[in-house]
Amino acid sequence: MKKRIAIFSGLIYSDRYFIYSDFPDLIKNEDVIITIYTNVKSNCVEFEKKFPNHPNLSFSYFNLKDLFYHKVTFFIRRLNDKLYDKSFFGSKTRKYFTDHMYEVKRSFVDFLYSFFLFFNSTFIRSLSRKLNCFIHLHTVKKNVELTSILKVNDVVVLNWSYNLHNQSIAAHCLKNKTPFFYHIQGFDNITTKPRFIFKPKGILTWSKRMNNDILRLYPEYKKISLNEIGNIQFDILKNDKFQISKKEFLNNIGFDENKFTITFGLGSPNLFQEEYMLLEWLANLTEDLIGEIQIIVRPHPAFKINNIENELMNFDVPIHYQNPNDDLIENDYQSTQSIKNWINTIQHSDLLINTSSTLSLDFSFFDKPVININYDSSPGMKNDNHIKAVQNTWEHFVPIINHNVLYIVNSYIEINDTVTLLLEKKDSKNEVRKKLIRDICLNDENVATANYIAFLNNL
Hints:
Blueprint: E1 3-8, H1 12-20, H2 23-26, E2 32-38, H3 41-50, E3 57-61, H4 71-85, H5 92-101, H6 108-118, H7 122-139, H8 144-152, E4 155-158, H9 164-176, E5 180-183, H10 189-192, E6 202-205, H11 208-217, E7 225-228, H12 233-237, H13 246-252, E8 260-266, H14 274-283, H15 287-290, E9 293-299, H16 308-311, E10 319-321, H17 336-348, E11 351-354, H18 359-365, E12 370-373, H19 384-390, H20 398-402, E13 406-409, H21 412-423, H22 430-441, H23 448-457
Parallel strand pairs: 1-2, 1-4, 2-3, 4-5, 5-6, 6-7, 8-9, 8-11, 9-10, 11-12, 12-13
């Protein structure tokens, strides 16, 4: 009898994998029946359009917002994060957020946090974790649809694992005695996002490095299975169904295929104001570079700023503003055109410039050089210290820095100098990029989907 698997999804980088990768073709006729439960209706439509009557994979709409929480649920979960992050088992990244980036408030709730932090200890942290579980299990709204979903499925995989809605599903799984797994899809999820509340049967990870992070931050997870499969998103980037020639891609945006193409990434999301560094650099481009380069400015889907596109029209160098939101019909829905833009931008760019984004991994996977901005040129330079802290404190990005794959720049002058160096084909980081991908993403080949299918078949 085929095992029935429910995968709860909903985010852009979750749903798009099941629609635009090789997974739907490769999972056909395997010994599983998989349903992707998503709160994005357009993704259900898109999948059915691309794979009508798939034998063992389907999408189903499920509204996560129907799950209800009391305010105490949020309080106790944040307290759990704060207690652990002030301990040996805490995330240095989240601790940095709390100590240096969040505004200090004087409300009664913040007084309560301070009170518990004063008595922080192994016992208090253990009590907080148990209280989290108890309160969450008893404040999750009874959901008839979710209960019926769990009754007809043998196992659950939660893709947006740290999210409170998915932790609610984990609570329902415990009540119904349904085994559940977490799938870590973003490299920064463990150290920047809230802590997991419930202990799963196992976790799908990218690599041994991620396993070590989990065991360091969750000592209570020593006996659960940690399954290294790699980064499944690379399967989409390598999918030739969506690739077009460099000439066609660049001509479509009015670019010259013989010029050096730079992608400048903005916002991840809105943490730093990279637009200041971008505009300052553009205003100070050397004459030699203006004639040699063309620039794709690609914001994070959550990046919000007014008039940036208009401001980019004031420069002599060719610039294309590629806003992913132009292709979003519904929030967290990526159309085929959006996927094509994403894939071909990486494939056909010669260089990425950004501020400590995990886009650095995508470009490194394709052996493309990355310039990492290590300064803030905004008025008052309020993020200057934070930008530098990413590279020596934030646990998801420090390993990237330590592999020496990035060209670190401290001014627009250094950006110009580095671009000139790369134009002269003096890039020397090819081998270290491969080592980075093998360390963080398990393999520099496209093997994650095969590993994922093997895992699902063995559940």
